[in-house]
Amino acid sequence: MGCEQAINPTDMQSAFSVRVSSRKHNICMVSDFFYPNMGGVESHIYQLSQCLIEKGHKVVIATHAYGRRKGVRYLTNGLKVYYLPLQVMYNQSTATTCFHSLPLLRCVFVRERITVVHAHSSFSAMAHDALFHAKTMGLNTVFTDHSLFGFADVSSVLTNKLLTVSLCDTNHIVCVSYTSKENTVLRAALDPEIVSVIPNAVDPTDFTPDPSQRQDDRITIVVISRLVYRKGIDLLGGIIPELCLKHPDLHFLIGGEGPKRIVLEEVREKYQLHDRYCSFFLRIFGREHKDVRGVLVQGHIFLNTSLTEAFCMAIVEGASCGLQVVSTRVGGIPEVLPEDLITLCEPTVRSLCAGLEAVITRQRSGSVPSPASIHARVQNLYTWRKRRRED
C-alpha cells in the first residue's frame, strides 16, 4: 500500500458523504461511541467533525446519554452534541429496535435541517437506527466501519445480518483499511464499487516526540490499550515476565482499563515485579491526547498485542511520538506503517518476544532512527488536513 503518500480523510469523507463538494451541508454524525467515552471511534468522529466545520459545513453529533451527561452540549468550534436518553444495553451500545429511537433521531434531523447522516461503527445500534430513519426521510447516508467481524459465532452472524439490512441502500460506505473493506463487503453482501478505503488520521501536533522524557538507564516498552481479550492482554501477560527476567533494565509502562487488568496485576504479584529491578508499572488514566502523549514520550518501544484490528490508531500515535513499533500481524495492521517503522510478529508470546528482543538489541546499539526523523515521516502519512504541495 502507498504508505508514503499523504492521506486527507476529511476531503475524501466529505466528498463521499454527498458526492457534491461545492455545496455546504448540515451533517449529523451518529454513534453510540463518543466522548466522554474514550477510544479510536470517538476520536475519529470528533476530529472529522472539526475538519468539516472548518470547511464551512454544519455538524452535529447524536449519541446516547453518558451518566449525568444528558441533553445538549457544545464542544470546540460550536460542535453541538445531542446526548439522547436511550437505554444502554451492553458495552456502551443501546438496544436496536428502531421504534424507541425514531422520535428522538427524527427530532434532531428535522430541527437541525440535516442533509447528510453519517453513521459510525458496526457495533453501534444507534448507527443502524439512524441509517434506517434517514432513509425513510429521504436523507443522504454514509456509513464508516471501524472494526473487523467474524462469520461463525452467534454474535457475528446476528451483527452481519443486521449490517446487510442497514447497508442495502446506503449511499456510500467507508472502511479504514483494505482488509476492513474485504471483511465488510463479504459480511454485508455489498457491491465493492460503493465501498471506499480511507485510512484513519492523527493530528501530528498532538503526538510529538520528546526524548528528554526518556530515562537513559533503561529501555521502556509502552502499551496503551483497552485491557480486554481482543487486545491480546493475555499475550502481554506472558511477555512481561519472560522479558523482564532476561533484561534487568527493561520496564513496562501500561495505560488502559478493562476486565483483563487482573491478568497484569496477577503477573506483577506472581513474579514480584514491583521494584526498579525489572519493574512493571500499571497506570490507569482517561485516554485524552495530552495524557497519551505524556506516556508515549517516556518510551523507546510501542507494543501492540491485538488479536484483531481493522487499522489500529495506537501504533500511528506511538510512531508519531518517535517510538519503535512492535505489533501483531493481524487484520489491517500490515497496511498502516512502512516496513522499516514497524516489526510485525505472529500473535504468540514466542514471536512477540523475538520481535521485541530484536528491537531492544537495535535500540541498545543505536542503530534505530531518531524520534524526530520517525515523526517527520509519520506526520505526512495520515493527516486530517491537506498539506500544501510544493511545486
From TrEMBL:
This protein's pathway: Glycolipid biosynthesis; glycosylphosphatidylinositol-anchor biosynthesis
GO CC terms: glycosylphosphatidylinositol-N-acetylglucosaminyltransferase (GPI-GnT) complex
GO MF entry, a single one: phosphatidylinositol N-acetylglucosaminyltransferase activity
All residue ranges annotated as the Glycosyl transferase family domain in the record: 210-352
Gene3D superfamilies from the UniProt entry: Glycogen Phosphorylase B
SUPFAM superfamilies: UDP-Glycosyltransferase/glycogen phosphorylase
BP GO terms, sorted: GPI anchor biosynthetic process
This protein's name: phosphatidylinositol N-acetylglucosaminyltransferase
Gene transcribed to yield this protein: PIGA
